[in-house]
Write a structure and sequence with these properties.
This protein is of the alpha/beta class. It is built from ten helices and 16 strands. The protein has a seven-stranded mixed sheet, with helices on both faces. Helix 2 runs parallel beside helix 4. Keywords: Amino-acid biosynthesis, Cytoplasm, Isomerase, Methionine biosynthesis, Nucleus.
């Protein structure tokens, strides 16, 4: 069965699956410009670090296709940079959009300096660069899946099938397709090595129960939903073999920012002698940030904690703390960081930066 598709793009037409409506309904909404993309990202109609970057960049491609070529390449590049800078502000913790913006700005600079390229050709080159992100992300995810499945299987060589615990949503709904951590789980399932995957509900936004569970049921993978507070008991009761999570930003030393609740899973995994893996493309690694203390952590609205939909479930007047992410220290990532280039210990990332 084909994996779910959360981003549809064809010939300048962009649609995204509105993830706020899942699992009750699957409705695609059009994205006509960068402002639409910014709002969809901010409201979490689309989420997941890779998907955020892709939707943002494709929304710029949509605008550029409609835009008459500016008089100069300098004017074109100013337009592109302003739009990208705006998109970066939509969700500050995930680094993928920032790195994608920097790469596109560098391309603009090269095109501006190249006197043999006119403004129309420069615009087309920028559009091609932005549109290539969709296919590139799927290829990266497939490679992450294969590398991760191979490493986990090797480290559990005495076991016929494996029990995996995952957090938040890291599948087709968070990427261009296939997924990062959930992509590794998909690859284990394809290889007939998956006994059971346990997904946490991932409070307070319930990405696990709403989105990951939806993907697992859709693809008929053996899966069980557990509350976040059940993670320690599940590791002990079900003899979990590995925890696999995604990442919104990885610092140069391997410290990893991911959905709130990831840090406590890493602590629990260490206590239960369970391998802990982070699965992320190299575009999620920020080599400009030395460690996790420098990663900005987004704070989300209190209503995500106090309400379920329109129904209040917490006492009125209670103060709330609602960080969207936490940082897992590199030393707790005992399995390794799974990338499209292979599986590395956290302190081995830097040498592979430009490979």
């Amino acid at each position: 069965m084909a994996t779910l598709q959360a981003i549809k793009y064809n010939d300048g037409q962009l649609e995204i699956l509105d993830q706020l409506l899942l699992p009750e309904s699957c409705i695609f909404i059009p994205i006509f410009n960068v402002e639409d993309a910014w709002a969809a990202i901010r409201e979490m109609k689309v989420r997941g670090a890779p998907a955020i970057a892709i939707v943002g960049c494709l929304s710029l491609a949509v605008e550029l296709r409609k835009l008459a070529a500016p008089e100069t390449k300098e004017e074109l590049c100013r337009f592109v940079k302003e739009k990208l800078d705006y998109l970066v502000t939509s969700r500050p913790t995930a680094v993928n959009t920032q790195l994608a913006a920097e790469a596109c700005v560098k391309l603009c600079a090269r095109l501006t300096d190249n006197t043999s390229v006119d403004t129309t050709a420069a615009k087309e080159d920028i559009i091609k660069h932005l549109e290539a992100m969709l296919a590139d992300d799927v290829a990266d995810n497939l490679a992450i899946g294969e590398h991760g499945a191979r490493d986990i299987t090797k480290k559990n060589a005495t076991k016929d099938k494996l029990r995996i615990l995952t957090h938040c949503n890291t599948g087709s709904l968070a990427t261009a397709g296939y997924g990062t951590a959930l992509g590794v789980i998909r690859s284990l399932h394809k290889a007939n090595k998956l006994d059971q995957v346990y997904c946490t509900e991932t409070r307070p936004y319930n990405q696990g129960s709403r989105l990951t569970a939806f993907e697992l049921v859709y693809e008929k993978m053996p899966a069980t939903l557990v509350c976040d507070s059940m993670a320690a008991a599940a590791m002990k009761q079900f003899k979990i073999d590995a925890v696999i999570v995604g990442a919104d930003r990885v610092a140069a030393n391997g410290d990893t920012a991911n959905k709130i609740g990831t840090y406590q899973l890493a602590v629990l995994a260490k206590s239960h002698d369970v391998l802990f893996y982070v699965a992320a493309p190299f575009s999620s690694i920020d080599f400009q940030i030395p460690n996790g203390q420098s990663i900005p952590i987004e704070e989300r609205p209190h209503s995500e904690m106090t309400h379920t939909g329109s129904i209040r479930t917490a006492a009125a007047g209670i103060n709330c703390w609602n960080p969207g992410f936490d940082v897992t220290p590199a030393e707790l990532i005992t399995g390794g960081i799974i990338t499209e280039k292979g599986v590395f210990k956290p302190d081995q990332l830097a040498p592979h930066q430009s490979n």
